[in-house]
């Protein structure tokens, strides 16, 4: 286990490196002169030249990348000109809420998706399966930003069960209960699509596993269906499902951008949308890098869980 | 080129197959309706979608002149929705086609040229996949600036990896095929091979990937527009209409909700059609999935099937007139038909036959382990010490399984759970039937492993199946069967997957265990040599029927059924290396199209006219022998 973990850890270094190259290239290939964009069209040529030098734009792309990477290593992600503060400070502040939202959704979609998939598989072609399959199809096809609006209209505006937006109540509040109360609707909205994906995969994987010979062996031992399903079938299915849950985090982290916008959740997603509108490139860069790095780490965790479940992988 | 058509030629065309899938048809209707209306927008009598009419602003649904109301500038919603759908649909389709084109190209080049080209391209694709899906699109839009065209680029780029990966995988497989080598040898250039031999075979995988990604692409472009990063006013797609009306959702919910509803409908239509296409092109990936075998074989006697005679109460196991059929595609496969057998305490009965003869189905039917669907027991009686097994309640059946009657299966790698230690798998059956604690059961598991002669059992108990050799895994299977000291062990080709020396050891083990414990053994095999070695009596099966039974010594010395005779000719004899091993020419009849009369007639060297005219009964030719052959009494 330890050697596998170390090997797997070593494997993420080139991935992180590749991510930094892609982000750097996307940002370096921006059409137009960033110096001009920052200073506006009334800047004098002298000022532009000075800023280009300050930003290192007069050097070669490789040189620029090395300097940039060196700065990243020191935690220097540059300065956000629209907020006039270091990018790293802003990102650090907003990472927590995003991870909280994504984590809550991931928990929801894993539990609900697995349950729906297992029920669907063991009641194949029964009415439970038909209803769940229909729900899954709708879930997979729903624009989450639209669903968020509907949930707000119904549960916040009409029924007043949940707050309309934000992370804490403005007056009072601030405790965990208040946080969970604010978290409920956005987390549910964000979980819908991923729940559909996991439910579908669980159903088909379970059906595949249930046909295998070791399930017949388990039944030949006289085990009851509950044990056969849980101990023998589901565990084997999970080996294939866990990595997909890891990949779903990518969709959840991306989807968080919509949900944070709809629910005014103070996370990185909403920050990115604002930063793109104000052309605050360094802020976008910092936000994307940090979230992508989180995603790599989550996939690493999913691989380690898979390894724990399956004694055949690595050693 | 012939290879491309061979797979699909035998099956009906794509349209009849898609039409049979009702959900896909529903999806197709939704999709066609939306697409038709969107395409017809210029000729429909609609007001200008951008004409503002402030007095009508936020007009509710069903207002005069505005059936779907009007937005914050008094623009007609119906017209805007239809024109917006046109934009969303066009952007989604173009993005999908662009991603398909570029992604497939990358995949083909990587798969076809292999080596460093493949490594370089696929590493780059991996890097793109390392980003959360939407985030990469956001970064691209951030660089290019907001706008519908840029959103299209971004969504297209983030979908390229899905095409590149699946196309590369299929290309890699195709490049190694013979007909590609043949094309090379005939001097065709790379380009000719790619377009002529490989591209046509890639179409299914490209279509499958398109069917999964098109829905996402429409959702995500709508999402970017919703965030204000896609379509910019006055241009509008469904997403931007929803985004602009978001602030008004409390005053005029319909202005925001209707565009979203149209997106939902559009994507549902795409996904339904996509599922249909996947089911059609690749049933394993499909949404339907494979049929799930139930916990016990269904027992549903055919109307008018004769009441079987009760088996003798003295037998440990008595089977009469057992019929286990498989219902597949509307056809009935008579996998086992009218099978009868008696197994007495301490006895070993061998069942011999080719694969497909019904020997395993007979064995699995005893504890109702034949999968339903498609299997079903449609007639007969199975008694265990006088107790009727076919009428047992599920809980009582489970109490018997692995307890009084236990199985040893072929292929011990597939029949053991790969994720549990072998000790746990033995202990599990002990705990189930003897109610022992976990540690007691584990201690018993070590004892059992020692009894089946696994060296270093105390350590091996915590090994996983893949860590043991084939012979050791089979010993684990035997230990599991012995765990609750059953009266009957049913061994289904337990030595087939093993090499000869291991096979001999396993047979020795079974013989010793039988002698020590007096367990009755039902031994299924295709190998007469093994039967001669181990069994007291033998039963030969052919095409789902019993064709000959008798004491092993008598049958070996004087086989009466032509099939038995031919089987015995197949057995190599030690010390006679020159003996011709006469494989039986021809194949057994398909059990869904059994001929009239004797089922062996077509392969028989003694066949006469009468063999084919009427069913042949099992004829008792001696006190302990039966034969299903009308010429059995002839010399």
Automatic annotation (TrEMBL), chain A:
Belongs to the binding-protein-dependent transport system permease family. GO terms for biological process: transmembrane transport. GO terms for cellular component: plasma membrane. The chain crosses the membrane at residues 9-30, 99-122, 134-159, 179-201, 237-261, 281-302. CDD domains: TM_PBP2. It is found in: Cell membrane. Coiled coil: none annotated. It comes from Skermanella stibiiresistens SB22. Keywords: Cell membrane, Membrane, Transmembrane, Transmembrane helix, Transport. Residues 95-306 form the ABC transmembrane type-1 domain. This is Glutathione ABC transporter permease. PANTHER family: DIPEPTIDE TRANSPORT SYSTEM PERMEASE PROTEIN DPPB-RELATED (PTHR43163). It is a multi-pass membrane protein.
């Amino acid at each position: 286990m330890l050697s596998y973990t170390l090997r797997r850890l070593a494997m993420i270094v080139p991935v992180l490196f590749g991510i930094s190259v892609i982000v750097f290239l996307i940002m370096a290939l921006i059409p137009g002169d960033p110096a001009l964009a920052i200073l506006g069209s009334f800047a004098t040529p002298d000022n532009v030249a000075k800023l280009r030098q300050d930003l290192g734009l007069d050097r070669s792309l490789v040189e620029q990348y090395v300097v940039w990477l060196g700065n990243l290593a020191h935690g220097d992600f540059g300065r956000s000109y629209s907020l006039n503060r270091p990018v790293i400070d802003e990102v650090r502040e907003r990472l927590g809420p995003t991870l909280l939202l994504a984590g809550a959704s991931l928990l929801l979609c894993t539990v609900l998706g697995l349950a729906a998939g297992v029920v669907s598989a063991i009641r194949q072609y029964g009415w439970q399966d038909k209803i769940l399959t229909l729900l899954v199809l709708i879930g997979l096809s729903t624009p989450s930003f639209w669903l968020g609006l509907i949930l707000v209209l119904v549960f916040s505006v009409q029924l007043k069960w949940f707050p309309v937006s934000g992370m804490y109540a403005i007056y009072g509040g601030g405790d965990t209960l208040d946080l969970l109360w604010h978290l409920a609707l956005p987390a549910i909205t964000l979980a819908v699509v991923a729940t559909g994906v996991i439910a579908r995969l669980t159903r088909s994987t379970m059906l595949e596993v249930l046909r295998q010979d070791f399930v017949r062996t388990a039944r030949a031992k006289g085990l009851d269906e509950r044990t056969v399903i849980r101990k023998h079938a589901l565990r084997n299915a999970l080996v294939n499902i866990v990595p997909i849950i890891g990949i779903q985090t990518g969709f959840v982290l991306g989807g968080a951008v919509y949900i944070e916008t709809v629910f005014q959740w103070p996370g990185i997603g909403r920050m990115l949308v604002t930063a793109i509108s104000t052309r605050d490139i360094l802020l976008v860069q910092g936000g994307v890098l940090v979230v992508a790095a989180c995603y790599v780490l989550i996939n690493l965790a999913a691989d380690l869980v898979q390894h724990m479940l399956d004694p055949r992988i690595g050693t | 080129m012939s290879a491309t058509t061979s797979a699909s030629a035998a099956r009906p065309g794509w349209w009849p197959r898609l039409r049979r899938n009702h959900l896909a048809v529903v999806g197709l209707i939704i999709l066609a309706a939306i697409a038709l209306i969107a395409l017809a927008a210029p000729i429909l009598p609609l007001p200008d979608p951008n004409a503002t009419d402030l007095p009508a602003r936020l007009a509710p649904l069903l207002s005069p002149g505005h059936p779907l109301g009007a937005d914050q500038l008094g623009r007609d919603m119906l017209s805007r929705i239809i024109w917006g759908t046109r934009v969303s649909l066009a952007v989604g389709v173009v993005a999908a086609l662009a991603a398909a084109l570029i992604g497939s190209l990358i995949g083909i080049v990587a798969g076809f040229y292999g080596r460093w080209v493949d490594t370089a391209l696929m590493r780059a694709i991996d890097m793109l996949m390392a980003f959360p899906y939407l985030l990469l699109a956001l970064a691209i839009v951030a660089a290019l600036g907001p706008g519908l065209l840029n959103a299209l680029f971004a969504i297209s780029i983030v979908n390229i990896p899905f095409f590149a990966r699946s196309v590369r995988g299929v290309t890699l497989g195709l490049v190694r095929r013979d007909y590609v080598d043949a094309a090379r040898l005939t001097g065709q250039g790379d380009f000719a091979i790619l377009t002529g031999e490989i591209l046509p075979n890639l179409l299914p995988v490209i279509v499958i990937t398109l069917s999964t990604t098109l829905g996402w692409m429409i959702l995500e472009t709508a999402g970017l527009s919703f965030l204000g990063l896609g379509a910019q006013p006055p241009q509008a797609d469904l997403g931007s209409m929803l985004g602009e009306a978001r602030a008004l959702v409390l005053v005029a919910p319909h202005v925001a909700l209707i565009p979203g509803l149209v997106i939902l409908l559009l994507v549902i239509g795409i996904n339904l059609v996509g599922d249909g296409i996947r089911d059609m092109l690749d049933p394993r990936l499909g949404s339907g999935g494979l049929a799930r075998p139930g916990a016990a074989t269904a027992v549903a006697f055919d109307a008018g099937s004769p009441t079987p005679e009760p088996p003798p109460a003295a037998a440990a196991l008595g089977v009469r007139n057992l019929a286990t059929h498989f219902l597949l595609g509307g056809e009935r496969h008579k996998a086992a038909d009218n099978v009868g057998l008696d197994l007495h305490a301490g006895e070993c009965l061998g069942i011999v036959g080719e694969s497909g003869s019904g020997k395993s189905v007979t064995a699995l039917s005893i504890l109702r382990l034949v999968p339903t669907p498609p299997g079903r027991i449609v007639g007969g009686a199975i008694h265990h010490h006088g107790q009727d097994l076919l009428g047992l309640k599920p809980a009582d059946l489970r109490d018997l399984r692995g307890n009084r009657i236990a199985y040893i299966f072929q292929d011990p790698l597939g029949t053991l759970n790969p994720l549990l230690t072998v000790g746990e798998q033995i202990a599990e059956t002990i705990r189930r039937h003897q109610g022992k604690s976990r540690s007691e059961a584990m201690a018993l598991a070590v004892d059992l492993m020692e009894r089946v002669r696994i060296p270093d059992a105390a350590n091996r108990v915590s090994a996983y199946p893949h860590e043991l050799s084939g012979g050791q895994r089979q010993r684990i299977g035997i230990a599991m069967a012995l765990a609750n000291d059953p009266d009957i062990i049913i061994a289904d080709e337990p030595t087939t997957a093993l090499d000869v020396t291991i096979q001999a050891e396993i047979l020795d083990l079974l013989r010793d265990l039988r002698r020590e414990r007096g367990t009755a053994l039902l031994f299924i095999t295709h190998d007469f040599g093994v039967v001669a070695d181990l069994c007291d009596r033998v039963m030969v099966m052919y095409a789902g029927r019993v064709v000959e039974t008798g004491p092993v010594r008598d049958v070996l010395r004087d086989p009466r059924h032509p099939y038995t005779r031919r089987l015995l000719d197949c057995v190599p004899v030690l010390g006679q290396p020159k003996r011709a091993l006469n494989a039986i020419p021809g194949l057994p009849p398909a059990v869904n199209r059994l001929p009239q009369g004797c089922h062996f007639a077509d392969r028989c060297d003694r066949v006469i006219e009468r063999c084919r005219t009427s069913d042949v009964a099992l004829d008792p030719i001696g006190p302990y022998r039966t034969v299903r052959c009308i010429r059995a009494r002839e010399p």
